[in-house]
Amino acid sequence: MASTARAETLPFATLGVSRLSALEAVRARIALAVDLGLLAPGERLPGNAQIAAALGVGEITVRRALVSLCADGVLERRRGRNGGTHVAENPNAAPSSPRTPTARTRPSSSV
Asked: d(Cα 47, Cα 32) in Å, to the nearest integer?
């Protein structure tokens, strides 16, 4: 109880800053690299294992983050000899902030 009371008295305790999950952190770091131009449009990303090792997360986390960024239009997947995950040609048109989970709502029924 003492730690809870102490946390409430800290000036930054009520700022609403929450900790990012590993998935959100990977998404944010890759999206930021694209926004800053560290990853150019059309550039191929390293493999999942290499990204996971560099960021200290599991490969499944990287895979899920890449799928999410592809869905947002920041990255694109290509098949074939020169395939892999690439930065989209126009990534700035895509939202760069990490997606936040939204509550699913049921369609309203007219009764």
From this structure: 18
